[in-house]
Every structure is written in C-alpha cells, then in structure tokens.
Write a structure and sequence with these properties.
Number of domains: 3
Strand order of the largest sheet: 8-7-6-9-10-11-12
Strand content: 15-25%
CATH superfamily of the largest domain: NAD(P)-binding Rossmann-like Domain
Helix content: 25-40%
Radius of gyration: 26 Å
Low-confidence stretches: none
Number of strands: 16
Order of helices and strands: EHEEEHEHHHEHEHEHEHEHEEHEHEEHE
Structural class: alpha/beta
Distance between the termini: 14 Å
CATH class of the largest domain: Alpha Beta
Shape: elongated
Largest sheet: 7 strands, parallel
C-alpha cells in the first residue's frame, strides 16, 4: 500500500527520510492524503480532506491545530515533545545571562558609540558602570513545568551553581527520574514565586496557565527578580509585567514574544520566537513526528498523541483491525460479536481509552472482507475502522 503525506510547511529532510519512498508519497500538494505533517501552519480554517487519518506537528505546541475538531473526526494528532528541549534549555540559560549581565542594554549602548577609537574607549570606561550585573551561582531559579524542557533547564541551572525550585503537580515518573535529586519541590506557584530570583515557565497555554503571572502574584515575587517566558505568549500579563519593571519590582523580563509594548522597553529583551530554532531541534522534531505517524498508519500504534490514548501492540499476524470509537460502554463487545459472526478469530487484542476516545487493535487469523469492515464502521459511536496489512477487495 502507498501512503500519501501532505506537508503544509517545510519539514526537515531528516524526518522525511524516515518515510521510505516505496511506501510513501510526500508532497506539498497532494490529493486524498492519509496524513498531514506541519510546523506552524494554522489549520483552524482549513478544510480537512476526508482521507486524513493522522496529523503530525513537528514541534511541541498544537495551538495551530483544531485538536477538538480532529478528535470528533477520529483523527489522531501527534506532536514531538522533548525533541526541541535542548534548544529551549540553551536559550533559557542565555536569557538568564542576558538579564544578569545586562547584555541587551550594554550591546545597544556599544552600538550607539561614535567617534574615533580613542573616544569610543573613553566612552566605554565612563559608561560601563551603568551595566554592572550579578552572577548566577547562589541565586534561586524557579521552574514552573517539569516536562522534558523544564527538567533540562533545572538540571543545567544546578550545574551552574544555582539553587532550583520546581513546581509541577502533574510531573511524570519519567521526568521525576531525570530531575536532579537536589531540585526542591515548591508547594505551589505562589510558594515558588516568593522564593525565586529567576522564574521560567515551561507549560502549555491553557485556561489554567493564561495570565498565570497577574497582579496578585507579582506582589508575591522578590524585589529585583527576573521573569523568563520561552513557553507561550499569554502566560504572563505583559502590561502588568511592564508596570512592575517601571516600579522596580522586576529587574528584567526576557521573552520570545515581541510586541509594541515590550520590544523597546529598556528592561526587556524580546527575541523572535527562537526557542526551537536550531537545525538540530528541527531535525529531531521532524524525525520524531515522522516515526509516530508512520507507526500509526502502518501498525495503529500511538505514541505522543495529544488527543488519543497511548497504545502499542506488537504485530501478531498479518492482518490487523484498528478501530477508533467514542469511549462508551459495550463497544468492544459489539466489535467482537461482529467479527465472530464473520467467522474471524482474534489472535491478539488491546484496548485503550483516553477521556472520550477509545482505540482497539486486533490481530486476526485471516483477512476480513470489506463487508465486515463496513459493518464495524456502521456501529454507532465508531469513528474510523482500518484493516492494516489487508489487500484491496474491489
């Protein structure tokens, strides 16, 4: 079977090379695609082709994808969490250094110098005192969000001699194992803010994180502290942050999201969304999401989906039925009854659910006919049925 992949952005060749050309046709214009790969393309107003079974975002955030709508259509949405974690970690470290040593302001000062070199040297010696900074060892970094990026940031800060406090009520066992043992656990966001010299955010933009830094929480922060946001615009209330800079409550605000309010402020450093903008990160993201989409199309396995349950079943036989359905009672019973009536035996089966969606993978002793697939698809609540490894029966 030949799978068709539609690309909506330039995807790294390192990722596309994971899709063998004898099985995959990949193009920026293609009819009836089985899957879509993209980076920042905004899909909310896009008409999704009926043939699409999966969408792969070569990055972590999926704000540009109508995830809820795709879930209703039975389309799995994949992302690449952690693939850009080193790139973002390095930028956060750079941001802390820029804030501590006033590098943005100092660079603007140096670029504005004029005259002969002797005059410039004299101006440098007279002007450098206004950029006196401080060093990182012994300072406290608060990390909100301890996923792949947050853990790397916390561990790197410890290696620099900083004290680190972390907060993440949903931290995974995997992340906890990766975290340096001497990273202290904060009791709450408020607890973390009151004890940190630097605060960095590594959480998605959802209702509970929108304007997480508000007027009340700014009052909790230590005088002269630094905010760093390389996660998502909207986590910090920018107007309140600027007011806190003006009052001297905040020392600096470093973020990846320029605006008219922030870009020219003397105590802000705004970068043009550089968090994942390295060659290595783009390659890592593309490789991860290409592997995820390929495994889903060929085997029905699900890894790093933002809307479907994780599921992995080793192939036990040549014919596999993959069913996506609403997570309601007796779905597996109805499916297995239809298969039994068709004279088919289930060799191996796995069912997993996540909120309103369930996925069932079943390896069969022989190939089901098209009539059986159609009967499964007609069950109320079934969103999609695929027979993997089956030959066409036109």
């Amino acid at each position: 079977m030949m799978y068709k992949i539609l690309t909506l952005n330039n995807i790294s060749v390192a990722g596309l090379d994971r899709l063998p050309r004898d099985k995959y046709e990949v193009a920026s214009e293609i009819a009836h695609p089985d899957a879509i790969l993209l980076r920042s393309y905004k899909m909310h107003d896009m008409e999704i082709p009926a043939a699409v079974k999966a969408i792969g975002r070569a990055g972590a955030g999926v704000n540009n994808i109508p995830v809820e709508k795709m879930t209703g259509k039975g389309i799995a949405v994949f992302n690449a969490p952690g693939a850009n974690s080193n790139a973002v970690k390095e930028l956060v470290l750079a941001g802390m250094l820029m804030a501590a040593r006033n590098l943005g302001q100092a660079w603007r000062f140096a670029r504005g110098l004029s005259g002969e070199d002797a005059e410039i040297n004299k101006a440098v010696e007279q002007g450098k005192k206004q950029f006196v900074g401080f060093e990182l060892p012994g300072r406290t970094l608060g990390v909100i969000g301890l996923g792949a990026i947050g853990v790397r940031v916390a561990n790197a800060a410890r290696a620099l001699g900083m004290n680190v406090i972390g907060y993440d009520p949903t931290i995974t066992v995997h992340s906890a194992w990766q975290l340096a043992a001497d990273v202290e656990q904060a009791l709450s966001v408020d607890d973390l803010l009151s004890r940190s010299d630097f605060v960095t955010f590594h959480v998605p933009l959802i209702d509970s994180t929108r304007n997480m830094i508000n007027e009340q929480r700014l009052r909790l922060m230590k005088k002269g502290s630094v905010l760093l946001n390389f996660a998502r615009h909207g986590i910090i209330d920018d107007e309140l942050a600027v007011a806190a800079l003006e009052e001297g409550k905040l020392y600096a605000y470093i973020c990846d999201f320029p605006s008219n309010l922030l870009k020219d402020h003397p105590r802000c450093v705004t970068l043009p969304h550089l968090g994942a903008s390295t060659k290595e990160a783009e390659e890592n993201c593309a490789i991860m999401v290409a592997d995820e989409v390929r495994d889903y199309l060929e085997n029905g396995n699900i890894r790093h989906s933002v809307n479907f349950p994780a599921i992995s079943l080793p192939r036990n036989g040549g014919y596999r039925i993959a069913v996506v359905n609403s997570n309601v009672p007796n779905m597996v019973g109805q499916i297995s009854t239809d298969l039994a009536e068709a004279g088919l035996n289930i060799v191996d089966m796995l069912n997993k659910s996540r909120e309103g969606i369930a996925v069932t993978l079943m390896d069969m002793d022989k190939q089901p006919d098209q009539g059986t697939i159609d009967r499964l698809a007609a069950i109320e609540g079934v969103l999609s049925v695929r027979c993997l490894g089956c030959t066409r029966q036109d």
